[in-house]
Amino acid sequence: MIDHIFPLGGDLPVGRLGYGTAQLTGPGYWGPRGDPADAVAVLRRAVERGVTLIDTADNYGPRLAEELIAEALHPYPEHLVIATKGGVVRTSDRAWHIDGRPEHLRAACEASLKRLRVDTVDLYQLHRLDPGVPPAEQLGALGELRAEGKIRHIGLDTVTAEQLAEALTSAPVAAVQNRYHLRDRASEPLLTLCEERGIAFLPWFPLGNGTLTRDPVCASVAAAHGVTPGQVALAWLLHRSPVLCPTPGTGSPAHLEENLAAAAVRLTDSDMTRLDALSPRSAPRA
């Protein structure tokens, strides 16, 4: 029996299949994608369908995704958890600048609060560790914001198991985000540490940036269940570990429905063995 609820930070129960907002913006996560009304409609439909975890970032757009969330969903349902990120600055559709200076992280967090129209961000994630700033200073800045009530829980994006272990000596970390999917399990050691510490792992590119929807093994398993390859890839994550909380993104209502229906897919032990074999870094399931 798969538990589809995860206690984020120990006190925020969220559905393990959430929704990511990057695809509500244009190519390179820059500017709008189509009519903003369509994005608003998809966000509202996600919540209507039971999504309780929405993941975004201040540089999606930039700023646009957070603004769309507020337009679509504020005032927020009591059960809805909003996660955002700071620490990366965009100056074009191809330019990403890491900025982990404490003063920048504070300003970025406070700007996100205003755009999201909240007093506290449920989960505020350091989008990248800044190699030019001591990690303790970056975590310390988030810890101060948490002590002030502006952040409820702290998260990290794109870290190693060693970096997470070090970060935990400076601040409580409730969630991490790393690339992880059927054919890319380089973050397996990080997943193991998350399982040991009860930390949520939000895998980005859970569909392999679309490649898994065309994977022949996923297609074979999908045919046996009467579902799509993408649904199999998402279901594998839900089966793989109880701390994995994928947040696939889309701007399409039909694709949203397809993604959310993956929660109902029940993979057999034989299915899992076939799917596990797709990566050389496969490990025993939790």
Notes on the protein architecture:
The chain is α/β, with parallel strands linked by helices. It has a domain of 196 residues: NADP-dependent oxidoreductase domain (TIM Barrel, Alpha-Beta Barrel). It is built from ten helices and eleven strands. It has a seven-stranded parallel β-sheet with strand order 3-4-5-8-9-10-11, with helices on one face. It has a two-stranded antiparallel sheet with strand order 1-2. Helix 1 crosses helix 2, helix 3 packs parallel to helix 4 and helix 7 crosses helix 8. The protein is globular.
Looking at the structure, the CATH topology of the domain at 5-200 is TIM Barrel
Strand content: 15-25%
The overall pLDDT average reads 96
* Helical content class: 25-40%
Order of helices and strands: EEEHEHEEEHEHEHEHEHHHH
Strand order of the largest sheet: 3-4-5-8-9-10-11
Please name the defining characteristics of this protein.
single chain; 286 residues; alpha/beta; TIM Barrel; 7-stranded parallel beta sheet; two-stranded antiparallel ribbon; 11 strands; globular; disordered C terminus
Please give the structural blueprint.
Blueprint: E1 5-8, E2 12-15, E3 19-20, H1 36-48, E4 53-55, H2 64-73, E5 81-86, E6 88-92, E7 95-98, H3 102-116, E8 121-126, H4 135-147, E9 151-157, H5 161-167, E10 175-179, H6 188-197, E11 200-204, H7 216-225, H8 229-240, H9 253-260, H10 269-276
Structure summary:
The protein is an alpha/beta fold and 286 residues long. Helix content is 37%, strand content 18%.
